[in-house]
Automatic annotation (TrEMBL):
InterPro entries: Kinase-like_dom_sf, Prot_kinase_dom, Ser_Thr_dual-spec_kinase, Tyr_kinase_AS. Residues 7-241 form the Protein kinase domain. This is Homeodomain-interacting protein kinase 3. Gene3D superfamilies: Phosphorylase Kinase, domain 1, Transferase(Phosphotransferase) domain 1. It comes from the Eukaryota. One of its GO terms (molecular function) is protein tyrosine kinase activity. PANTHER family: DUAL SPECIFICITY PROTEIN KINASE (PTHR24058), HOMEODOMAIN INTERACTING PROTEIN KINASE, ISOFORM D (PTHR24058:SF17). It holds the Pfam family Pkinase. GO terms for cellular component: cytoplasm; nucleus. Keywords: ATP-binding, DNA-binding, Homeobox, Kinase, Nucleotide-binding, Serine/threonine-protein kinase, Transferase.
Length: 241
C-alpha cells in the first residue's frame, strides 16, 4: 500500500506568514500557530478524497454550545481557509501536558493526577452526550490553561484501534486516558511507538484478546495467524513472521 503521506499537500508556512489580513504566524507550535492576537491556529492539511476538515468542522460546531470552563474542552472560535487548507482558530492555552511533565523532570503528584482524571472524565462525559469518540487522547492533546495558577487542565491507541475493529466506542478513550495517566505519573512512556511491539506489550500485560474480538478486526491478520487444534484459533505472530 502506498504511503498516504506521499499524497499529503503541505501548506507554505513559516514564521511571519500572513494567514489572513489579521492573522500572522509568530511561532510554530507543531499542531498550530501562535498569532499576534494570542490565538492558536490548527491547519488541517489536505488529503485528496478524505473530507477530514469537513467532519471536524461539523463536530466543532456541535461542541460550540458547551461552556469551555465547565466542559474542559478547548474553545473553538471559527475557521478560514489558507492556500485551500482549512484553518481552525482556538483559544491559546499555556502548554500541553507532555511538555509540562518533561520540563519539570518528574511525574505528577497524586493530587495533580486526581485533577487530570476528573477533568478528562468531565470532557469525555460531554463528548459522549454528543455521541462523539475522541480517539486521540494523549499528553500532547491535554492542555494546561496556566501552569503557574492552574497547574492542570485538561502511543495510546487501544487494541481495537490497532486491530481495526469497528465501530469504535468511548472505550478506546478510557484506554488512552489510562495510558496517559501512567505516563504523566511516571514521566516515562508506557508503550513503544512501533505497532507490533505495542501490541506485544499489551498482550504481555493483559493477555491475548479473545478469538471473538480478533475475528472482528480487519487488521488482525497483520499481527496474528490462524491455527488449528488449539484452544485459541489465533496465534500472535513472531517478529520474523
Amino acid at each position: 500500500m502506498d504511503d498516504p503521506s506521499a499524497f499529503l499537500e503541505e501548506p507554505d508556512l513559516s514564521i511571519g506568514t500572513f494567514l489572513s489580513e489579521s492573522l500572522q504566524v509568530m511561532d510554530l507550535l507543531g499542531e498550530g500557530a501562535k498569532t499576534c492576537e494570542m490565538e492558536a491556529v490548527k491547519i488541517i492539511k489536505k488529503f485528496p478524497g478524505l473530507p477530514v476538515e469537513k467532519n471536524e468542522l461539523v463536530i466543532l460546531k456541535e461542541l460550540r454550545s458547551l461552556d469551555p470552563d465547565t466542559s474542559n474542552i478547548i474553545k473553538w472560535k471559527d475557521s478560514f481557509t489558507y492556500q485551500d487548507h482549512m484553518c481552525m482558530r482556538y483559544e491559546l492555552l499555556d502548554q500541553d501536558l507532555h511538555n509540562y511533565v518533561k520540563a519539570r523532570g518528574e511525574g505528577l503528584l497524586i493530587p495533580e493526577l486526581k485533577s487530570v482524571i476528573r477533568q478528562v472524565a468531565t470532557a469525555l462525559q460531554h463528548l459522549r452526550s454528543f455521541k462523539i469518540v475522541h480517539a486521540d487522547i494523549r499528553p500532547e492533546n491535554i492542555m494546561i490553561v496556566d501552569r503557574r495558577q492552574q497547574p492542570i487542565r485538561v502511543r495510546y491507541r487501544a487494541p481495537e484501534v490497532l486491530l481495526g475493529i469497528h465501530p469504535l466506542t468511548e472505550a478506546i478513550d478510557i484506554w488512552s486516558t489510562g495510558a496517559t495517566l501512567v505516563e504523566v505519573a511516571t514521566a516515562s512512556t508506557i508503550f513503544v511507538n512501533e505497532e507490533y511491539d505495542e501490541l506485544s506489550q499489551i498482550i504481555q500485560c493483559h493477555g491475548q484478546p479473545s478469538d471473538e474480538i480478533l475475528d472482528r478486526g480487519k487488521d488482525t491478520a497483520s499481527y496474528f495467524c490462524e491455527q488449528v487444534n488449539s484452544d485459541h484459533r489465533w496465534r500472535f505472530k513472531t517478529p520474523s513472521e
